Each structure stands twice: as C-alpha cells, then as structure tokens.
Amino acid sequence: MELQDLKFQGIKINYLYVCKRKLWLFSKNITFENQSDKVLLGKVLHEYSYPKEDAKEVLIDNLIMIDILSDGAVREVKYSSRMKEADIMQVMYYLYYLKQKGIEKQGIINYPKERRKEILELTPEYEQKVKQALSEIEKITSQVTPPPATKQKICKSCAYFEFCWG
Amino acid sequence: MQKTLYITSNGRLRRKDNTLYFETETEKRSIDIENIEQIHIFGEVDLNTKALNYISQYGIILHFYNYYGFYAGSFMPRKKNVSGDVVVRQALHYLDREKRIFLAYCFVESAVYHMMRNLRERKEAEAFLNAIEDEWENGRFNISSISELMGLEGRVRNIYYSSFNQFLPEDFYMEKREKRPPTNPINALISFGNSLIYSTVLTEIYHTQLDPSISFLHEPSEKRFSLSLDISEIFKPLVVDSVIFKLLNNRQITLEHFDEDLNYCYLNQEGRRIFINELRNKLETTVRHRQLNRNVSYKGYIRLECYKLIKHFIGDQVYSPLKAWW
Ligand code: SF4
Questions:
Q1: Do residue B291 and residue A148 have CB atoms under 8 angstroms apart?
Q2: Confidence of residue B68 (pLDDT cuts 50, 70, 90)
Q3: pLDDT tens for residues B82-131?
Q4: What pTM value is reported for the model?
C-alpha cells in the first residue's frame, strides 16, 4: 500500500466511527475545502505544540497528522478528545498496517489543548476490530447511494454541514 | 466569507515578493490574496504569468469582461476537488430524457416563481402577473420536451419583461428584450447583470464536484459552461432584476450613466461601478436559512443550489429548487 492509501484508509477508519455518511461522501471524493477556523486551529496547534521533537511528520489531511517519531511511536495530534474512539481506531489502523510490514510500534495520541496523551498498544482484540472496520468500510463505500444524514452533535462543526442540511 | 474583488479601473496586477498588487497610474494597492475567491476584471488590466501562477496557487478565479462590460471568459485554476463518481452520474441525468426534463423543469419553475415574486408587490403589474400565472399554469403540465419547456419559458419571460414598462422610469422603456448587442438602456442593464450572475454562479460550481459543462435546460453545446446558465435562471430574477428595480426607482442609475455616443446601449464606467456595488451588496445580504438555522448570503444560496444538485445526482435527495420564502 502506498502512503497515499495509508492516509486515506486512516481517515476512512476515523470517519467510520464519526459518521458513515461522511465516510461515503469522502470515499467518492466529495469533499469541500474547509475554511473554518477549526482547521486553522488544528494546524497552528500542531506547529506550536511540539516544536522540538524530532518527528517525521506525515500530513494526513488538514485535520489529521500522523507522526512517525524517531523513538518508534506513531503519534496523532488531535484537537479534542471528543472523538476518542474514532481517534483510537485510526491509530490502531496505522499500527496494524505497520505490523503487516513487520514494524511493531506503539501509538500515542496527544491532546495538547487538554494537556493529555494516550498511549496505545495494538492488542489482538484491536487487531480484530481493525479488520472488521476495514470490511465495513468496504461495504459502506460500495453502496450506490450515501447513508442518509442523521443529525448529531458533530454536524455543526462538520465540513459537510451545509451540504447535508442546506 | 471569501471575498469578491471587482476591478473597474485600468492598471496592472503584479506579484511582488509574496504580495499581489493592483497598480494604477496613481496608486498601488495590495490585495489580500488569502481571502479572495474571485476577481471580476472590467478595466484594461495587464498581468503576467508570474501573477497568474501566484493567483492560481490560491485557487482564485478571474473573470474577464470586454470594453462594453460583456463577459469574455474566465481563468480557472486547476480544480482540486474532482469526483469521477459525481460527473458520471451527472451525465446520466443528462442522457436520460425524463431525468433531464425533470431538472430543466425545476430551473424554469424556480425562475418563474421568482419572476412572479418580483411582480407580486407591484399594483401596476397585476394584470401581467395574472397573465404569467395563466400561461404557466396552462402550460406546465403539458411539457414533453425541452424545446416545449423553453417555449413556455420564453412566453412567460416576454410577459414578465413587458411589465417592466409599468413601473420603471419612462427613460427605461423597453420595446422588447434584446440580448446581443442590447439596443436600449434597460436591455443593457439586464445583459450586464446577467453576465455578472453567470460568472458568479460559475465560481460556486467550481468549488463543488459538479461539471459545469453538463447542463439540462440549456444544451451543453450552447456555452462551454452551460450548467452555469441553468443555475443562473434561478438567480437572475431573484438577484439581478431586484437590483435593477432598486437602482432605477431610486434614480441611482439614470441615462447619465450610459454611453451617449453608443446610443445608451452600454453603461459607462460610473454606471458600472454603481451597478456592481449594488449587486455586491445584494449578494452579500443574508437571509436566515430555516434548516441550517444560520444566516446565508444570496451567494451562499447559489452554493447550496449546487449542493442540492450533487445530492440529486448521487441519489441522496431529490432536487427541489430554491423558492425564496422571505
Ligand atoms: S453534517 Fe452530520 S450527517 Fe453530514 S456528514 Fe457531517 S456529521 Fe455526517
């Protein structure tokens, strides 16, 4: 798998837990430039939170940053811990992916705004969960029409808000 | 909100270091490139590839107009958000006769709705309003082809335009609607406004996954970006015509603002400035959107129309065109 795919699959895993409709739309390349402050904040947060650490950073999209740190951990920096399960699964997916390549690593999710971090280990249970998630993604994205919009809290800050509800 | 810049004077667009400037003989003004979405260029403006490349990095669209204010064409930077899926399905709606007529009908329905809305408040136009209603109600259920639909739309539009004489100042009497070239001041205003709306709609389409060349009411061969013509139908009466009524009835635009040498068929520079200013205000005016529970500008409503079309194409939600409820 190429880096590009890795990154897209990671976002898809994340979206699977956030909103299945968002996942479907994203998989069809229906995306909108998000000019909201949140994206900007995410960028700024990342740039200023860990200036010194020596990390090889991989930009996933404007929201998600995967860092392969030199000490052997995969790190994600998140804006808030609201989407915790989605974030964890995303990192688990990266760990799973790396494991397929024979690289075993730990995962770290940083929530700099909340001054918290989460250390993650790829357990067999999670490995199973990742596999399930991947097959569910396959199922959802091969549907001809998108899952209908359902109002949830995150809609208000979602880049698709006007698309779904306008 | 991303801004629209209108350049009405002559000069040069120049990139110097990491700033874009517009320079005229007398002044030099920097342009806040990060917050600009599109630039409409009316003046005689020079620019080189250095400036153009810089502009396209920011995804800014340039719309050019000729000496008479007619739309000449647009420079659109390479598109980022392309979805093969959406384009294929958009094409399917064009190829399927029923599906195509459905969409074409929607555009006309909304256009007629907004025309009637414009006349509703005007006592002088009551008879015309009734005539439009008759024509439309009698015709709209018997449409079996695009050309019939076009014919019906044409008849409605003729009644609509002829009503203008009842409530616009006498100087702006109109025999009939003439497109190119316009032969009198009111035609000049309509043409000018319509081309501004066309390019504004084009910008909104550009920011979505829609293909601007696949259209439904107009033939895709008619103009390169004929989907923009389709969507413009909705906004011409809603935005352009109400701007014209306001400018004329408040005497903000009079015959002085037309080129006398050219038989009053073209706005002069001052006239264009006034018009553009009012149109800009209109496009930025916001109205509460009931589902979104947010204020949305008229320009924003154009974008929402594009979204609704995408949702229609991907089988998410049947398209229902805007009918201004306010
Ligand atoms: S706006 Fe709500 S329903 Fe639509 S994609 Fe975003 S989260 Fe899902």
A1: no
A2: confident
A3: 999 999 999 999 999 999 999 999 999 999 999 999 999 888 999 999 99
A4: 0.90
Into how many domains does chain B fold?
A: 2
Q: A165 vs B292: CB contact, 8 Å cut-off?
A: yes
| Range with the poorest average pLDDT among A6-10, A41-45, B275-279 | A41-45
Contact criterion met (CB below 8 Å) for B240 and B279? yes
Report ipTM (2 d.p.): 0.90
Asked if residue B79 belongs to a domain, the reply is no
Verify that B19 and B135 share a domain, yes or no: no
**Same-domain status, B32 and B100:** no
B295 to chain A, closest Cα gap in Å? 11
Contact across the interface for B85 and A145, Cβ inside 8 Å:
no
Residues B12 and B112 in one domain: no
Residue of A nearest to B2 (CA): A35
CATH of the domain at B117: 1.20.120.920
Domain around B49: 3-65
Nearest to A31 among B81, B303, B304 (CB): B81
List, in sequence order, the alpha helices (H) in A3-160.
3-18, 20-27, 37-49, 84-100, 124-141
Same domain, residue pair B107 and B256: yes
